[in-house]
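Q: Sequence in, structure out?
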Amino acid sequence: MPDVLAEAVAPPLAGGATAPSAGSPPPVQDREGLVDAASLSRPRRTLVRLPRPVRRLAGPLLVVLTWQLLGTFGIVNDRVLAPPSAVLSAAWELGRTGELADHLLASLTRVVSGLSIGVSAGVVLAVVAGLFRLGDELVDSTMQVLRALPVLGLLPLVIIWFGVGETPKIALVAFGTAFPVYVNTYAAIRGVDNRLVESARTVGLGRLGLVRHVILPGAVPGFLVGLRFALTGAWLVMIIAEQLNATNGIGYLMNQAQSWYRTDIIVLGLLIYGLLGLTADGLVRLLERRLLAWRRGFEGGA
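A: Exactly. Output:
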């Protein structure tokens, strides 16, 4: 009875807490207030944080696993979409005979040649339009008109101009990759902070020094963004270009597989295109980290 009366008349503590009753563990004082000692004795759960590459691979691996299960249980017919095991078998078969390497080398040669021409043309035109007022008036409007043209719609005209050999395929890749580089590089040149330009002029830099030490370094991030788009666009154009009037290449291999309903080879070709694009994007990212080591941007939250 006295204990009950003592609890009834006990004044409330700060924050609305009540005084501990007899036999309960003593409260522990921390920075926030009173904390139950029993809660402190419970073990805390620690989450094991996986490395970022492992977490990035979790999504694709889940897709591949689901894809394989759909084929294994017959939910998806092999003639509609071959499972990953059949795709790997086709890759082993073509790789063992050397046929896959020959087609891959032909596609890489065309893409590298087209990219070299397209990227070079895009950079030169962007510098001319970005640095000179007359170049802006003459070049930029023309490039904006040409950029609106569908690349694959030019295929009949390119065949008339260059025939059905390697040249039209390289020309299509060059045409499709020049515009992403031009647009992003031109925007980066015109987007250089004018305060940096005024500061450079204040310290005595001339026109050539201004371009070399301020304008072009400031345009590098935009150029790299355009290069990433150009690498992706090159493979998209090549898929169609190699399926028309070609005798080798990954696109030609996929076109031949279509006649025999070899979806495993078709999917293999698509995966090769995707892996090549991912590798090229990784190389540009590596180049970006080297060239833009001075710039630290937001890398995402936890």
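Strands lie at 28-29, 34-35.
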